[in-house]
Amino acid sequence: MGKIDENKKKKKEALFNTAYDLFTTKGINSTAISDIVEKAGVAKGTFYLYFKDKYDIKNKLVVHKTRELFDAAGDALYTSGTHGLEEQLIFIIDHVINALMENKPLLNFISKNLVMGALRSTLITGENSNNDIYDRFLELVEHDDYSYSNIDVMLFTIVELAGSTAYNSILYKEPLPFEEYKPFLYRTVRLIIRSYREN
């Protein structure tokens, strides 16, 4: 990577980090683009090289932070020795949710947007990743002992269910505090996976 590309990357990272810090402390509505660029130490024009407006950077941040969560879960899965799609997906969901439980500002920021972050990362950011979450998931499906129908629908349903229910359970203890709710969630995830098996 050349010096110009490295500088661009540093500026974009500074904008990302600053926006995340301001969004999670002041809130999105109370944060102006001028706040972000001033704190990041970059010119306002630089902001518009990468982002249309503060909602664009917010959406890209959701994707970025979600990708970090799922990448960490995927790396942990790789070293765990867990086998079978059912156990692997439970492992990943558990890892992601535990990380969110330990980081409530991140949970609040991502809100119920795990699906957007997990499944639409390339579409929103325009960036391809060799470790794309969806590609990793397809690998798990491919190496499972069973075949599955409507794989996209299955994944969407599981991530949507886990993201929205964990959000309510962790933050508002609805319908139960998360540690009590977890067995119900994971039982449902297992039933969803089994319902998409073809053999």
Strand and helix layout:
Layout: H1 3-25, H2 33-40, H3 44-50, H4 54-80, H5 85-102, H6 104-110, H7 114-119, H8 121-125, H9 133-142, H10 151-172, H11 178-195
Structural descriptors:
Arc Repressor Mutant, subunit A; single chain; 2 domains; 199 residues; 11 helices; mainly alpha
Please characterize this protein's 3D structure:
By secondary structure, the protein is mostly helical. The chain folds into 2 domains: 1-51, Homeodomain-like (Arc Repressor Mutant, subunit A); 60-195. Helices cover 76% and strands 0% of the residues. The chain is built from 11 helices and no strands. α1 crosses α2 (33-40) and α10 runs antiparallel to α11.
Average residue pLDDT: 89
Number of helices: 11
Basic shape: globular
Gyration radius, to the nearest Å? 18 Å
Q: Hey, roughly how much beta strand do the residues contain?
A: under 5%
Q: What is the H/E string?
A: HHHHHHHHHHH
Point out poorly predicted stretches.
121-126
**Roughly how many Å apart are the termini?**
48 Å
The biggest sheet amounts to:
none
Counting helices, strands and paired strands, the structural category is mainly alpha
* Record field, number of beta strands: 0
Helix content: over 70%
Domain count: the total is 2
